């Protein structure tokens, strides 16, 4: 199945197993984000990303500039290991990692989770690329991706045992909207996908196609 098909199947499965009130609250929160136009304030094509460093799953600081020395970088922001749609997306990048690396590119995944949570996540999914911890959404905020969850949505997450205070190590109840970028060595964004609807993600194969086109210019 394609990533789109997997995401659709997961959505149908999740909605069928939850209370309709919970489903409606989650849908309404997403629609509100879309209406607010959060994507318009996010980094996009042609923007230059800032310099930053974040800890990986082993607590080692990773400088984004060091990764860009070797070629283009695919940066994907995801919500956390508790999000099944994020897990499907990261697994899809792992499945496409060999062809991505054949283009002298790397993948970096960033979430607000603490390194300990990210470590167990990485082991579970058997990921061979860097997974970085953006505690407090400091970097995601610079990219214009962060939103505060409404109280009724927080209540639903607690009912579903998705306690972000434990995953993220704070009481902010903030998340990044999913976003994927291809960044060139000059820090300029050559491909941008930002979507306030967390149920939708760009297929890594489309990212690979854009990467191929970039390298043949």
From TrEMBL:
InterPro entries the UniProt entry points to: AhpC/TSA, Peroxiredoxin_BCP/PrxQ, Thioredoxin-like_sf, Thioredoxin_domain
Ranges annotated as spanning the membrane: none
EC numbers, comma separated: 1.11.1.24
CDD domains named among the record's database cross-references: PRX_like2
Record's keyword annotation contains Disulfide bond: yes
Enzyme class: oxidoreductase
Reaction(s) this enzyme catalyzes, per UniProt: a hydroperoxide + [thioredoxin]-dithiol = an alcohol + [thioredoxin]-disulfide + H2O
PROSITE patterns documented for this protein: THIOREDOXIN_2
Occurrences of domain Thioredoxin (ranges): 43-216
Keywords: Antioxidant, Disulfide bond, Oxidoreductase, Peroxidase, Redox-active center
Family: Belongs to the peroxiredoxin family. BCP/PrxQ subfamily.
Task of the protein: Thiol-specific peroxidase that catalyzes the reduction of hydrogen peroxide and organic hydroperoxides to water and alcohols, respectively. Plays a role in cell protection against oxidative stress by detoxifying peroxides and as sensor of hydrogen peroxide-mediated signaling events.
Protein name listed in UniProt: thioredoxin-dependent peroxiredoxin
Organism phylogeny: Bacteria, Pseudomonadati, Pseudomonadota, Gammaproteobacteria, Candidatus Tethybacterales
